[in-house]
Amino acid sequence: MTGRIILFNKPFGVLSQFTDKGTEGTPRPTLSTFIDEKGFYPAGRLDRDSEGLLVLTDHGPLQARISNPKYKLEKTYLVQVEGAPEDAMLDALRKGVSLKHGRTRPAKADITDPPADLWPRDPPVRFRKSIPDAWLRITITEGRNRQIRRMTAHVGLPTLRLIRLSVGNWQLNQLQPGAWRFASPTGS
Asked: Pick from 165, 168, 115, 109: which is nearest to 139 by CA?
């Protein structure tokens, strides 16, 4: 499969598209704020309030293969949640949970520490002294609308911050927010 790939670290608040068709009056930041390469399109989406790896390509069939859930391409996220995860909550994520449009596929879900070099979010995540928070590493093979947020809320752990670390073989690694680089079509 041919085509060029761009790996982009999408900052919080940026739309996963090149133009803003919203009706909010004030233009919102889009991919065109950061990427001036022509002919590239996102392979999948990342919500405006999520951060991390967004894969873009200039090859339609590759874009479809990356985006289509039938190929079960793994996507891994670092998720800051409100509350203290219990084994039963993690087990529910691992088995799949029932959401409005059906049951999710089983996920990989574990408690983790945030990376030491994690960038600060602007604006910062709300902090409440009386409610603990924790970090999870969750891997899914689908990409339903706001799926991770809906899954964690379903088990009683609302998502505070969501950062995509990888899509298939493509890794965020040390790419800083707003930065991008070309990558191999097979991942790297």
From this structure: 109
Spot the catalytic one: 20, 36, 47, 113.
47
Quote the pLDDT of residue 151.
96
Write down all domains in the chain, each with its CATH number in brackets: 1-71+169-188 (3.30.70.580), 74-167 (3.30.70.1560)
Check if 47 is active-site: yes
Q: Contact, 139 vs 107, CB < 8 A?
A: yes
**Sites in the chain below the pLDDT cut of 70:** 1, 23-24, 188
Collapsing DSSP to helix, strand or coil, 170 comes out as strand
Beta carbons within 10 angstroms of residue 16's beta carbon: 17
Rounded Cα gap, residues 8 and 55, in angstroms: 6
Q: Which residues contact 67 (CB under 8 A, 6 or more apart)?
A: 43, 44, 143
Cis peptide before 123 (omega within 30 of 0): yes
Q: Report how far residue 40's alpha carbon sits from residue 186's, in angstroms, rounded to the nearest whole number.
A: 17
